[in-house]
Amino acid sequence: MEASTRPSVDLLILGVLWLAGNVLAAITAVVISGIAGWDLQAISGEGADVGRASIQIASGGTVVDEVVPIWGTALFQVPLWGALVAAPIVVARGWTAMLERYRVTHRWRDAPAGAGAGLLTQLLLLPMLYWVLFSLFGDADVGRPARELAARVDGTFGTVVFVVFVAVVAPIAEELAFRGVLLRSLERLMAPGWALVVSAGLFAAVHFQFLQFPGLFVFGLVAGALAQRRNGLVAPIAAHMAFNATAAFSVLTS
Predict the structure, then answer these.
(1) Are strands 38-39 and 66-67 parallel, antiparallel or unpaired?
(2) Domain carrying residue 247
(3) What is the pLDDT of residues 12-22, one digit of tens each?
(4) How far apart are CA 104 and CA 42, in angstroms?
(5) CA–CA dist 225, 188 (Å, integer)
């Protein structure tokens, strides 16, 4: 059976690999932190909650006292990123087939438009969104996880790792999985509009950050709309990179 005719199986593959990636990321965090004496409670980012819960369950409490360096957090995420990248490769049955199926390297002229959309989302749409939400429900510290992550950046090496981690690796892996496998598979199961909304909701939910959910959902809509309109992943990848790079610059210079 051709992969393109089995969207439900493709979604199952993505879900299983995402779960496996999170489990491996948690195990990696527990093992390495236990050896190095790092405090997993200081971690923020994808997989952080899983890793924090794992170390507490295993030890009965926090038994380490050194903050995890930024490169350590990046190392913990490697299994998850690998799983997210593996999903479209498995679904498409090969690296070359994946590049063609999800149009990863097509229409490079879409990159500037995508980057512009990412910047506008970060600098205009999200401030407007949270102004409305805060006006209705009161203020909240939405930027705390990002600041906690940036607070562990120390020196040139840490800064480079932080920027690569946030603005390059994560956007590519997440777009391949969420605007590649997830959105494309959902489009074969429901109307494109519903597929866009559902994929954006799942994208926001798997970050496990309640206060950031509305902003991540809005970005998911923007990235998904770019993928649908441009019929490929160049624009959403560029948007994600610009979106995250802007956030990284903000927390590093604040």
Answers:
(1) parallel
(2) 3-253
(3) 999 999 999 99
(4) 35
(5) 16
